[in-house]
Amino acid sequence: MNYNVDKIFEDVAYLSKVHSKNEYEGNTRRFKLDRYEELSDLVHADDVETEAKRFCEDIFLSFKKFGKVRGTDQMNLNYFMIYYVFPTILCEEQEGKVICDTLRDTWNTYFKCNINYTDYNTLYEGFQTKIFGIPIGKN
């Protein structure tokens, strides 16, 4: 493995369940400080497509059991990518959209899913305060 998947996706199950703006903001800040550097091969690659395949392969090998990634793990990985990896690449890299498009397409093909991405501000503004599951305003 070339990517430190254990460090990048440490506590993936916990971090993929975000409930408030403050929680999301803090988690994103920690991701940028502690883990984003682990993606430097991907975001600074001359051949992003090859690096995206290598990144997905490393994740698959790290999380597979009996030849596939379990449904719960896959869901948590998808959320983690949507909440942290894609928005951070978009914010930090000049060619962020190109990198994210390539990574998204590779991810969807590799993991046989259909995720997309958006920027940090859109996600941040989407959190709402709920009481008994009823939205009462923005968080």
Quickly describe the structure.
With 139 residues, the chain is mainly alpha-helical. The protein has helices spanning 5-8, 12-15, 21-34, 40-43, 48-63, 71-92, 96-111, 120-125; strands at residues 64-65, 68-69, 128-131, 134-138.
Plain-language structure description:
With 139 residues, the chain is mainly alpha-helical. 62% of the residues lie in helices and 9% in strands. The protein contains 8 helices and 4 strands, in the order H-H-H-H-H-E-E-H-H-H-E-E. It has helices at residues 5-8, 12-15, 21-34, 40-43, 48-63, 71-92, 96-111, 120-125, and strands spanning 64-65, 68-69, 128-131, 134-138. Strands 1-2 form a two-stranded antiparallel sheet. Strand 1 and strand 2 (68-69) form a beta hairpin. Helix 5 (48-63) packs across helix 7 (96-111) and helix 6 runs antiparallel to helix 7. It is globular.
Instruction: Output mean pLDDT.
Output: 91
**Judging from the principal axes of the Cα atoms, what is the shape?**
globular
Strand order of the largest sheet: 1-2
Helix content: 55-70%
**Class derived from helix and strand content:** mainly alpha
Cα gyration radius (Å): 15 Å
Question: Biggest sheet, in brief?
Answer: 2 strands, antiparallel
Strand content: 5-15%
Number of strands: 4
Distance between the termini: 39 Å
Unreliable segments of 5+ consecutive residues: none
Element string (H = helix, E = strand)? HHHHHEEHHHEE
- Summed up, the helix count is 8
